[in-house]
Write a structure and sequence with these properties.
globular, about 40% helix, 6 strands, six-stranded parallel beta sheet, DNA polymerase, domain 1
């Protein structure tokens, strides 16, 4: 592979950690429906679309709803979630994330966001790093969820860089699979035993260097 030219970042768990807000909003919904679920169960919802997450949660509670009711519940959960993320501050950027973004930009790499979230622009604005991205691709621009590579392929297209010169940063196995099936290099953020198939695994962007990026 030729030297990478672009970095595509997932948002949740890579740049910021909004999982806690998703958990609070989903849990509030579950409680309203008369049941509860744990943080461990919540891990299963990582990188999964809103409606798919809702189906899993309703299944945990043994609750069945029509499609129309599910849309209403998903909208309600999102309203609660948005209410929480609009109070986010730059302090919530994960360690090393802003610094690494600044480093790659300073070294002429192109950057894109590749996230399933439909609220990514709000989050980036709140934490003050929108200017560090050349392209934003999120749930408003794509319809297929990871492990489908659509979100990353659209990101590569918007940056005008071939997929084999893109490096994806992901914290979920579905995201690693999406990057690889899109013909890209993948850096896993988290644990190596979980993120199988990644070309490199680091605990966080704090551990990333230009040398590691260039040697992929």
């Amino acid at each position: 592979m030729s030297k990478p030219k672009a970095c595509i970042f997932d948002l949740d768990g890579v740049i910021v950690d909004t999982a806690v807000y998703h958990y609070k909003a989903w849990r509030r919904l579950a409680n309203q429906l008369g049941f509860d679920f744990t943080e461990t169960q919540n891990e299963e919802l990582k990188g999964i679309s809103r409606i798919e997450s809702l189906k899993i949660i309703l299944n945990w509670g043994g609750v069945s709803k029509s499609d129309a009711e599910m849309q209403e519940l998903a909208t309600l959960k999102n309203e609660w979630y948005v209410e929480m993320i609009t109070k986010m501050t730059p302090r919530e950027i994960l360690p090393g994330a802003k610094e690494f973004l600044e480093l790659v930009k300073a070294n002429h790499y192109l950057t894109a966001l590749g996230s399933a979230s439909k609220n990514s622009e709000t989050i980036l604005r709140q934490v003050g790093i929108t200017h560090l991205f050349d392209a934003l691709v999120d749930g408003n621009k794509v319809s297929k969820s990871k492990p489908d590579p659509e979100v990353f392929l659209v990101g590569a297209q918007e940056l005008n860089v071939p997929p084999n010169q893109c490096v994806v940063f992901e914290d979920a196995i579905a995201g690693i699979q999406a990057a690889k099936s899109g013909g890209m290099k993948a850096v896993g953020i988290g644990k190596a035993e979980v993120l199988k198939g990644a070309d490199l695994v680091v605990a966080g962007l704090l551990e990333m260097t230009l040398a590691k990026l260039e040697n992929l």
